[in-house]
Amino acid sequence: MQQRALELKRAGRRIGFVPTMGFLHEGHLSLMRLARERCDVLVVSIFVNPAQFGPTEDIEAYPRDFRRDEALCEREGVAMVFYPSAENMYAADASVWIDEEALSGRLCGASRPGHFRGVCTVVAKLFNLVLPDLAVFGEKDAQQLRIIERMVRDLNIPVEIVRGPIVREADGLAMSSRNKYLSGNQRENALCLRRSLDQALALFGQGEHDAAVLRQAMVDLIECVSEAEIDYIGIVDERSLAAVDEIKDDVLIALAVKIGNTRLIDNAVLHL
Ligand code: AMP
Question: Cα–Cα distance between 202 and 253 in angstroms, integer?
Fold first, then answer.
């Protein structure tokens, strides 16, 4: 991969990159379209990264369908699909990791210790292999996006990070490879994530700036839904991800909810 990327760069081609874990959906494809508009050669990686899964998280159960993914990539004009094995990506005695220290402990990081260390390390490795000029990440993973932006800034990595908007199903559920795990009822119950965000946005629109009130309204809505268990609801500063009490600046409302055994995330940014 790196050899090919070096050849492309020597030929003056601009490389765009979309890293994924595969089982592609319209959200991934929208990022590919954003990247393709801004580059000459589009590379997509498909890698279910063991380093970002915790010991209790079932990496083997993560959905995979490489043939289908490959066909979708071809249709989107992807020049190369990079599909490494875990053995090729990580030396058995790998001992260097990237730890982002300010944003990673919050929100998802609090319930998934080590997750963002795995994410940062694999993204840095993928950048070194693909040598992209730009890479697109989805706002669906709001915390991940901000951590990658921080890593690129703090380590002077010469990659432009482009933000891709959240793509949703017609009824508002954010697209995710994990939606496949949901049964018919759970699929309906999963709408509580988006509905609770809408509820908070509506209250904010009516002039409510107290984060605790917005949060409680979200809790009340989700607690009425069967099989829904809140992991966290964060109302945080859009940049630092620190919790806010009163909304005086742009905030990110991010939540993770388990529907049965499936952990789903969603978010919205509240602009003042
Ligand atoms: P994943 O395959 O889940 O690791 O996601 C790969 C990339 O796709 C990440 O940058 C995600 O933020 C992005 N992504 C996943 N779902 C969506 C979505 N519904 N809308 C926009 N981007 C998404």
Answer: 13
Tell me the domain boundaries of the chain: 2-164, 177-270
> pLDDT tens for residues 141-167?
999 999 999 999 999 999 999 999 999
Per the annotation, the verdict on 28 as an active-site residue is: yes
Cα 89 from Cα 81, distance rounded (Å)? 15
- Spell 203-227 as b/e; 16+ CB within 10 A means b: bbeeeebebeebbebbeebbeebeb
Spell out the residues 6+ positions from residue 45 whose beta carbon is closer than 8 angstroms to its own: 17, 18, 19, 20, 81, 82, 83, 84, 126, 130
pTM > 0.70: yes
pLDDT below 50 — which residues of the chain? none
Nearest CA to ligand 1 atom 11: 138
Nearest protein CA to atom 7 of ligand 1, as residue: 20
Task: List phi, psi (to 5°) of 109.
Answer: -65, -30
Q: Is the CB of 164 under 6 A from ligand 1?
A: yes
CA of 11 to the centre of ligand 1 (A): 30
For the segment(s) 177-270, the CATH number from 3.40.50.1820, 3.40.390.30, 3.30.1300.10, 3.90.1180.10 is: 3.30.1300.10
User: Rounded CA gap, 188 and 85, in Å?
Assistant: 35
Per CATH, domain 2-164 is 3.40.50.620: yes
